[in-house]
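Standup notes, structure subgroup. Blocker cleared on the iron/sulfur cluster input:
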Amino acid sequence: MTKMNFFVQRSELRDLYDKVAAGERISEADALRLFESKDLNALGAIADLARQKKVGNRASYIINRYLNYSNYCILSCQFCSFARKKRDADGFELSIPQMVEKAREALKLGITELHIVGGLHPSLPFSYYVDFLKALKALDARLQLKCFTAIEILHLAWLGKRSVEQTLIELKDAGLVSLTGGGAEIFRKEVRSAIAKGKESAEEYLDVHRTWHKLGGRSTCTMLYGHVETLADRVDHLRQLRALQDETHGFVGFVPLPYQPEDNDIPVTTPPTGFDSLRTLAISRIYLDNFDHITAYWVGLGLKLAQVALSYGADDLHGTIIEEHIFHMAGATSPQLQTEAQMLKAIREAGRTPVQRNTFYEPIKVWDDAAASAEDGSTSGKSKMLEDNLATA
Ligand code: SF4
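Run returned:
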């Protein structure tokens, strides 16, 4: 029998702790109750129990690089600070040799993943995307290419005059191993049209991921919270993700994204608070009982809060990233990269065993006691090179 956490003994949420302890699924009404509660300690205790039951004492990170091929976009989502039009002076698009060069440099730093997204470019042909995947894969067969949001896939299908399924088959053949989770925003139609008019519907987002999963692909998914949505909208969003996961089991992780308020058209002046982010992560862990991994996205949260989130249901800190644009153009004040040493320190302080993972959240290296005592300083091998290079970046 699970030892009852001190914080839940007299909490109004105790019945939900008992449900989770018994391995029962919580309902949407339960999730809303959790969102409406002010008892963050009890909520954290329930999420921590769910996390412990699901993944034990490990917490992961990935050594990756972000790469944006272009910020030109035919849409103008109200919350987006990243997109530019061709007339804008700070618009950019990378040639395939430029992308290869950035990837080559990052490989020297020990990355295992390239995370590639861009705007909906008005004129680049379908062959550009296939060719850059092939060129990047040719650099190192072990490099995992996690690319494209669902709306990019719909755009590429339209551009290439192919079905979504055929588009995904051709991208997979060229080297794509995972879709990114971006673009889910909030699924409810009214909220979607208030923040991302013209973007794909919830059904289209889910259908792209469903099609990808049925082809054997894996992906992550997200929720952008803290803007004009209600707490019930968040629960509805999680409900739709849990339902698709029940159907396909293709999501490897869930990444809640705190809204960044600067330089966009939505009338929200402050980003989500620490309280709101911790409860959202905790409820995601408790409600999404069919997801193995919940990521605390340090770019949006800051590494300090992401570290605390490891005690509120999260079991992953995301990656080193190296060059982040989308959140920083929206006002994020976090650094643009983290070193592996910073990730290790954050995870160890939280009492977890650090694990370097791959794109599918599978372990590459477990930093257990034996590995820790074999460390040279705080890093080793390629990771040491990463620390050295990032120190001068
Ligand atoms: S969120 Fe994506 S689709 Fe929307 S404007 Fe920005 S880059 Fe374009």
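Discussed briefly. DSSP finds 17 helices and ten strands in the chain.
Next: hand off to the docking folks.
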